[in-house]
Automatic annotation (TrEMBL):
Organism: Allomuricauda ruestringensis (strain DSM 13258 / CIP 107369 / LMG 19739 / B1)
GO molecular function, one term: orotidine-5'-phosphate decarboxylase activity
Protein name, as recorded: Orotidine 5'-phosphate decarboxylase
Known EC number: 4.1.1.23
Biological pathway: Pyrimidine metabolism; UMP biosynthesis via de novo pathway; UMP from orotate: step 2/2
Length: 273
């Protein structure tokens, strides 16, 4: 998908919400466990209910891999359903991959070609030749971990390297990679105040911002420091939407939660000059 199409969809829906499909059999409503594919049944109901309020879906691959072959089948069904019924949705494989070039190419094929995702999350630790194979794919996007939402982000990402913090080094060095126009970055919502500095280095890049909802990040703070004239943000919530109710009304309640966030986003969008 082209970035312009994502921006157009954001304007149309007045939303830059990404719904994280972190589907956990221990948390989904009990009545769905009788279904042949409970994970897909849950995802389909969530997608059917929330799609008017969001522009992206982000299945976290761990939640599918955890169930072996059956989990992969659920992921494939979810992607087939999304691409057939909601081709306008920006899809993110939250896989956090990255390896030597030869192996990265295989990961890229798996997620961009076989699974037909628009984008994938990548760990930058192995450097240029581990990231560039993903950037070769036209119309696909590579989302590099810059400053993550968890406490462990302070172990390495904020340490000084060559006179600047490592996450800033990731941002500035990756901008020189071949195909860098297809890069986006992950910045945790719990680190909103850092966005001011981040925008100095990547003023226009789209940022995937997880960590509102269950992890306590603030949408308003994220927008205050991170929003651009072309929005430049995809804000993710997973558990806060998916498990807002675990009863028969789970999908309806998820839609209400997604709509609440969309309405807050609409206010933020109206402030862009
Ligand atoms: O890459 C991610 O999406 C990600 C990066 C990060 O720094 N923090 C983070 O929480 N995530 C993912 O975003 C989702 C957050 O889920 P909730 O906390 O339930 O909204 C999970 O799938 C995480 O794996």
């Amino acid at each position: 998908m082209k970035i312009e199409d994502l921006i157009a969809q954001i304007h149309q829906k007045k939303s830059f919400l990404c719904v994280g499909l972190d589907t956990d059999l221990d948390k989904i409503p009990e009545h769905l466990l009788k279904e042949e594919d409970p994970i897909f049944a849950f995802n389909k109901a969530i997608i059917d209910a929330t799609h008017p309020y969001c522009v992206a879906y982000k299945p976290n691959i761990a939640f599918y891999e955890a169930y072996g072959l059956e989990g992969w089948k659920s992921l494939e069904r979810t992607m087939a359903y999304l691409n057939a019924n909601h081709p306008e949705m920006f899809t993110i494989a939250d896989a956090k991959r990255g390896d030597i070039g030869n192996t990265s190419t295989r990961y890229a094929k798996a997620f961009f070609e076989t699974m037909d995702f628009d984008s994938i999350t990548i760990a930058p630790y192995m450097g240029k030749d581990s990231v560039e194979p993903f950037l070769e794919f036209e119309g696909r996007h590579t989302i590099l971990l810059a400053l993550t939402s968890n406490q462990g982000a302070f172990d390495f990402q904020t340490k000084n390297v060559d006179g600047q913090e490592l996450y800033k080094e990731v941002l500035s060095v990756s901008k020189t990679y071949k195909g860098a126009e297809r890069l986006m970055y992950v910045v945790g919502a719990t680190k909103a105040s850092y966005l001011e500095d981040i925008r100095e280095i990547v003023p226009e890049s789209f940022l995937l911002v997880p960590g509102v909802g269950a992890q306590g990040g603030s949408l308003q703070e994220v927008c205050k420091y991170g929003i651009t004239k072309d929005i430049g943000l995809l804000v993710n919530s997973s558990r806060g939407i998916l498990y807002a109710s675990t009863g028969l009304d789970f999908a309806e309640t998820a839609a209400k939660k997604a709509q609440e966030i969309q309405q807050e986003m609409q206010i933020e969008l109206s402030k862009i000059k």
